[in-house]
């Protein structure tokens, strides 16, 4: 994976040449349009600045510049910072502002371990409830994943696979648990972490095969192993971008 390194200098707290902050806005605007509030847009924008290394761990988040770049007031920016603090991306200090938190490797691994456990539980529930519909649906998705290489359609297929498992599990509690796990990678995961495509393709193939056999243990283990491997990919991507702290 290749990543560019921005040289931070005196030209602004977000680094890069004049207008660099707007370049991030342009990159994000090129992604699929989704209806969001201004606060959600601001949170996504700040998250991407951190991921791209334009806001470094320990640096102060320039709220006025962000509001100007997005053409919004500071109110949704503050809303965004509160949400990002809950997710562990920033720390808000009274009368001082918001500062980018240090993201540690173990925190990334814990996040994906939790994803694996929750999806593992979901596929167990799906099989226990009778997996006939799932057995009919998953092979077609897996076949499409095998021949899809572009990040956006690949992501759509992955989401369809997970959605099918969750629908078959019929567990609102599991869905609530997943919503509580905020994403670590802003934007299209498979575009920003390209090594993840092969891991996901192989992992979901193994999960589908276990579902076909109605082997709940193997299906859950497949999800857990796949998401541990994805943690390796995310750690490598974060480290390459210089946004990862200690172990």
Structure in words:
The chain has 247 residues and is mainly alpha-helical. It folds into two domains: 20-100, Orthogonal Bundle (Arc Repressor Mutant, subunit A), CATH 1.10.10; 105-241, Up-down Bundle (Four Helix Bundle (Hemerythrin (Met), subunit A)). Helix content is 64%, strand content 3%. Strands 1-2 form a two-stranded antiparallel ribbon. β1 (90-93) and β2 (97-100) form a beta hairpin. It is elongated. The chain starts with 19 loop residues before the first helix and ends in a 6-residue tail after the last helix.
Instruction: Tell me the radius of gyration.
Output: 19 Å
Q: What is the CATH domain class of the largest domain? A: Mainly Alpha
**Quick one: overall form?**
elongated
> Could you spell the SSE succession in H and E letters?
HHHHEEHHHHHHH
Number of helical segments with 4 or more residues: 11
Layout of SSEs?
Blueprint: H1 20-29, H2 38-51, H3 63-70, H4 74-86, E1 90-93, E2 97-100, H5 105-128, H6 132-146, H7 151-169, H8 172-180, H9 189-192, H10 196-212, H11 216-241
Antiparallel strand pairs: 1-2
Helix pairs in contact: 2-4, 3-4, 5-7, 5-11, 6-7, 6-10, 10-11
């Amino acid at each position: 994976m290749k990543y560019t390194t921005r040289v931070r200098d005196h030209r602004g707290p977000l680094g890069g040449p004049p207008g660099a902050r707007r370049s991030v806005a342009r990159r994000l605007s090129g992604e699929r349009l989704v209806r969001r509030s201004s606060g959600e847009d601001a949170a996504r924008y700040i998250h991407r600045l951190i991921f791209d290394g334009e806001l470094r761990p320990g640096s102060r988040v320039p709220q006025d510049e962000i509001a100007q770049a997005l053409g919004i007031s500071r109110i949704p920016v503050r809303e965004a910072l509160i949400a990002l603090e809950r997710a562990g991306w920033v720390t808000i200090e009274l009368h001082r502002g918001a500062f980018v938190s240090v993201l540690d490797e173990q925190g990334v691994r814990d996040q994906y371990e939790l994803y694996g456990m929750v999806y593992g539980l979901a596929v167990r529930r799906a099989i226990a409830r009778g997996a006939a519909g799932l057995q009919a649906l998953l092979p077609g998705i897996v076949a499409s994943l095998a021949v899809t290489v572009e990040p956006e359609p690949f992501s759509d297929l992955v989401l369809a696979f997970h959605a099918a498992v969750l629908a078959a599990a019929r567990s609102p509690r599991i869905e609530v648990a997943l919503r509580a796990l905020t994403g670590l990678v802003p934007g299209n995961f498979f575009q920003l972490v390209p090594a993840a495509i092969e891991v996901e393709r192989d992992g979901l193939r193994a999960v589908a095969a276990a579902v076909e056999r109605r082997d709940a243990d193997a299906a859950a283990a497949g999800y857990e192993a796949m998401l541990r491997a994805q943690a390796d990919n995310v750690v490598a991507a974060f480290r390459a971008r210089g946004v990862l702290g200690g172990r």
